[in-house]
User: What shape does this take?
Amino acid sequence: MKQICDLTAIVLAGGKSSRMGQNKALLDWHGKHLIRHVVDQLRPVAKKVILVAKKPNDFGFLGVPCFKDLNPASSPAVGITTGLFYSSTEFNFILGCDAPFLNVVTVKRLYDAREDYDVVVPASDHGIEPLFGIYRKRCLAVLEEHLHRGIFAVRQILKDLRIKVLPTDSWTQEEKMSFFNMNTLAEYDSAQRYIQRRFLNYPG
Assistant: This one.
């Protein structure tokens, strides 16, 4: 797949991982850290890949720019704001660090649907997926305003942006698995079993 020249992939790695009990970005995923797997998956589609974290020094081994959250609050909205602040491209793909099944075809689908919307996100069986979407650089001002007012819920912030929700009814199961994330050890184990069942020769 050809890289999208005006797209930055922003990986959010600033969560507390409290339910996981350890830093989920550093979990083993087929012989490499999960965060490296995610970054490697993004390289073919995004011209630039950057990380946002509370402790950027933890990820120096990746060799990609890593920026410290601009706000001490623990919220994905802070990570998105920080990523957009440091991004130099108009379009930005937001993704959490705990998405092992990213299919880059889905990123291209979202990008191609951008039109003049501020945000493009898919809709899964659980509703919209705000941490798996295309965000324009111009969203930064709205995000900063909400954080200044103490509003940290991403879904609430999206109400003040022009958002396009992309149906996923026609997507394959593998594409829909792009939204799967891991917050607990049980979900981590579930992801490992999924690999064993469907991708016995999964390259990681």
Observations:
- Helices lie at 34-42, 76-86, 104-112, 139-148, 154-158, 173-176, 185-198.
- Strands lie at 4-12, 28-29, 32-33, 46-53, 66-68, 91-96, 119-124, 127-128, 132-136, 163-167.
- The two ends are 18 Å apart (CA to CA).
- The chain has seven helices and ten strands.
